[in-house]
Design brief:
Chain lengths: 129, 258
C-alpha cells in the first residue's frame, strides 16, 4: 500500500481507539483489532440507514486492479449527532477509509476513521466526554 | 301490514334501548392502582444520553470493575456467554440475543449508545428508549409488584420518591439477558434498585444496585451518568430492520473458500 506515513499515523490512532464502541458492540473477535487497514478509492454507494451506515468504495490496488470494499460505520442516529448527515459522502467522492479488517480476509472494514477529499476527518465512533 | 311494521319497529326500539342491551360502559376494572399517587418530587424529564465511565477511553458498554465476584453458577454462565461473544466462531456477532431483537433487559438497556427520554406523570415515570423503542414504566402510585407478572425480560418496576430521589425497585426478571456486552449474567432472582437523582439541570445520576445471590457473592453498585441533550430528539431505531447488518457480518465471519 502507498501512503505508508498515513498508514502509520492511522495505526497509532487505532491503538488509542482500540476500545471503540463499535468493537464492543459487535464483539471484537471477527475483526483484527491489532492493526488498521487503509483503503483509498471512489465511493460507489453510501447507505445512510439503520442499523449501520455502509460505505462502498472501488479501490485500485498497486497493479491497477479495482477491488470492491464495503465498510460499516455506526448507526445514523449516532452519526448525525456527531456532524454527519446523509449528504456528507456522495457517490463518486474520493475517500480514504481506515478501519479493522476481518480475520477471514474479506474486503470489508469496520470503520475507525474517514478522510474526505477535502481533507476533513470524520470519526464514525461516538466519544462522549 | 303497515301498522304491524310500525308496531314492530316501536317494539324493537323499546327493547334495544332497554339497559340490558346497551354496551357495558366499563368492561372491567383496571388492575388496582395504588392509593398513594403523588406528584413527582423532582423533575427528571428530558432527553438524556449516557456518558462514558471516566476509566474508559470511549463510551463503555460494560460495567467493568463495579461487578462483584460471581458464584460458581454465575461464573459458568458468564464464561458461556463471554466465550460466544468473543470467540472466533462464525456465529459470533449473531449469537447475542439482542441481534435477534430480543429485549436487552435491565440494566443492559442503558449500555447502548442511544439516548433515553424520561416522561413523568403523577403515577408513573416513563422511560422511552431510542434503542429499539423499548419502554419502561416505573409506577409511583404506591402499587406493589405485580405478583402475577411472572418472569419478564424487562422486569416489573415500582418506585417511590425519597426526597428528590426516585427509587425504582425492579423484580420479576427472567434470566435470558446479560447485564452488559461482556456477558455478565443475572438470575431470575435478581433484585435491582435504581436511584435517579438530577444533580443539576443538565446532569442525571443513576446509582444502580444489583442484589442477586444466585449469580454474585454480594450485592454491588454501579453509577451511570447521563447528560441532558435538549436539542436532540428520539429517532427511529428498528432492530428487525437489520438484514443488511446481519448479512454484512455473516460475510465477515465466513471462512473463505480455498
Amino acid at each position: 500500500m502507498k501512503n505508508s506515513r498515513l498508514a502509520l499515523l492511522a495505526c497509532l490512532a487505532g491503538l488509542w481507539m482500540i476500545a471503540s464502541p463499535a468493537s464492543a458492540h459487535h464483539g471484537t473477535s471477527a475483526y483484527d483489532t491489532t492493526k488498521l487497514t487503509t483503503v483509498k478509492g471512489t465511493v460507489s454507494d453510501f447507505q445512510f440507514n439503520n442499523p449501520h451506515v455502509i460505505i462502498s468504495v472501488d479501490a485500485t490496488d498497486d497493479k491497477g486492479k479495482v477491488e470492491k470494499w464495503v465498510c460499516e460505520a455506526n448507526s445514523p442516529n449516532v452519526l448525525t449527532r456527531h456532524g454527519w448527515d446523509r449528504d456528507i459522502i456522495k457517490k463518486g467522492d474520493q475517500i480514504t477509509l481506515i478501519g479493522n479488517r476481518p480475520k477471514n480476509g474479506a474486503k470489508t472494514l469496520r470503520l475507525q476513521k474517514v478522510i474526505l477529499s477535502n481533507g476533513q476527518e470524520l470519526d464514525p465512533n461516538s466519544l462522549q466526554d | 301490514m303497515r301498522i304491524f311494521l310500525v308496531r314492530l319497529i316501536l317494539a324493537l326500539a323499546v327493547i334495544l334501548t332497554f339497559p340490558t342491551f346497551l354496551p357495558a360502559q366499563t368492561v372491567g376494572q383496571p388492575r388496582t392502582a395504588g392509593a398513594g399517587t403523588v406528584a413527582p418530587a423532582a423533575d427528571l424529564s428530558g432527553l438524556w444520553i449516557r456518558l462514558r465511565d471516566p476509566s474508559h477511553a470511549s463510551i463503555n458498554l460494560d460495567f467493568g470493575k463495579a461487578i462483584s465476584p460471581m458464584t460458581p453458577w454465575g461464573d459458568a454462565k458468564f464464561k458461556a456467554a463471554n466465550s460466544v461473544y468473543r470467540s472466533s466462531s462464525p456465529s459470533t456477532v449473531l449469537s447475542d440475543p439482542i441481534f435477534s431483537c430480543f429485549p436487552p433487559g435491565v440494566p443492559r438497556i442503558y449500555m447502548v449508545n442511544f439516548p433515553v427520554q424520561i416522561v413523568q406523570t403523577p403515577g408513573q415515570v416513563i422511560l422511552l428508549f431510542e434503542f429499539d423503542h423499548f419502554v419502561r414504566r416505573i409506577y409511583t402510585d404506591g402499587r406493589p409488584h405485580d405478583k402475577d407478572a411472572g418472569q419478564l425480560w424487562m422486569g416489573d418496576s415500582v418506585g417511590k420518591w425519597e426526597g428528590e430521589i426516585l427509587v425504582a425497585d425492579t423484580t420479576n426478571f427472567n434470566d435470558k439477558t446479560t447485564l452488559d456486552r461482556e456477558g455478565y449474567p443475572h438470575s431470575d432472582a435478581m433484585h435491582l434498585v435504581e436511584r435517579f437523582r438530577r444533580v443539576d439541570h443538565d446532569n442525571l445520576v443513576v446509582e444502580l444496585s444489583v442484589d442477586d445471590p444466585k449469580a454474585y457473592t454480594k450485592p454491588w453498585t454501579a453509577t451511570l451518568n447521563f447528560q441532558l441533550r435538549a436539542d436532540w430528539k428520539i429517532m427511529e431505531h428498528i432492530c428487525e430492520d437489520n438484514a443488511s447488518f446481519v448479512d454484512f457480518n455473516r460475510k465477515a465471519t465466513k471462512t473463505p473458500k480455498k
